[in-house]
């Protein structure tokens, strides 16, 4: 089986075009929102430890 990212994400997001589509598909939207919030806080702390401030910057 070959991983085809475009097809994978198109299929997954066509079924659930919200945070469940990019997160835990079998769990609630509220759960996924909470998980994304925690991941954001964790990333902010890790960047702060390194003296990095992402405000006003673009990743992609």
Overview of this structure, please?
The chain is mainly α and 60 residues long. The chain has one domain (5-49). 60% of the residues lie in helices and 0% in strands. It has three helices and no strands. The longest helix has 21 residues, at 29-49. The two termini are 29 Å apart.
Quick overview of this protein structure:
The chain is built from three helices and no strands. It has 60 residues and is mostly helical. The chain has one domain (5-49).
The backbone outline, from C-alpha atoms, is extended
- Could you report the average pLDDT, rounded to the nearest whole number? 94
Quickly count the domains.
1
Gyration radius (Cα, Å) is 15 Å
Terminal Cα span:
29 Å
**Number of helical elements:** 3
Query: What would you call the quaternary organization?
Result: single chain
Task: Please state the structural category.
Answer: mainly alpha
Pattern of helices and strands: HHH
- Point out poorly predicted stretches: none
Strand content: under 5%
Fraction of helical residues: 55-70%
Number of strands: 0
GO molecular function: methyltransferase activity
Keywords: Methyltransferase, Transferase
Protein name: Class I SAM-dependent methyltransferase
């Amino acid at each position: 089986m070959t991983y085809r990212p475009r097809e994978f994400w198109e299929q997954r997001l066509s079924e659930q075009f919200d945070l469940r589509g990019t997160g835990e598909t079998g769990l609630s939207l509220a759960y996924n929102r909470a998980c994304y919030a925690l991941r954001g806080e964790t990333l902010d702390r890790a960047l702060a430890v390194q003296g990095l401030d992402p405000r006003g910057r673009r990743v992609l």
